[in-house]
Amino acid sequence: MNTAPTRPTSTAAIVSLSFGAASWLLLPILAAIVAVVAGHMARGEIRRSGGAIDGDGMALAGLILGYLNLAAGVLTVLVIVFGVAVFLGLAGINGH
Length: 96
Known about the structure:
This protein is an all-alpha fold. The chain has helices spanning 11-25, 28-48, 56-93.
């Protein structure tokens, strides 16, 4: 029985994926920032290891989840700000 040696998984990649998922469930902005930072750290660590460390897919997934959450947060804030501005503008036009 011939088994291939397993490579260790980057801890930062695990953190990135975990916080990327948590950013959609528990702590939206804070967890998304942690996911993005840890994802970039993990990908750099994996690239520098020359193939000795695994987890690039997990780091990439964490980055994607984190960036998507941050984009959704920014979009939500913009919609609210412009919605309030339009509402106040319309209220001013009607004389209320």
